[in-house]
Specification:
By secondary structure, this protein is mainly alpha-helical. Helix content is 73%, strand content 0%. It has five helices and no strands.
Length: 71
């Protein structure tokens, strides 16, 4: 359960490449209900929305630091 945040972040990163990540879809990929996913993230001190924002921010910073993309 300690890896739930890492697992969700990984799945969000994959989903971002295809559009807007949805908690229900990520939960399904991790073989749990959306409610269980929400509860486990809360137990880990996080939320789906917070993790999506972290992944978006990191992706944006990577793009800005890539000279091929930011020039």
């Amino acid at each position: 359960e300690g890896d739930i945040v890492a697992s969700v972040r990984r799945e969000i990163g994959i989903a971002l490449a295809h559009g807007e990540p949805r908690s229900g879809e990520i939960a399904r990929r991790l073989a749990m209900s959306a409610r269980t996913l929400s509860r486990r993230l809360a137990d880990a001190g996080s939320s789906f929305t917070a993790l999506v924002e972290v992944e978006r921010r990191e992706r944006a910073l990577q793009m800005l630091s890539d000279p091929r993309l930011s020039s």
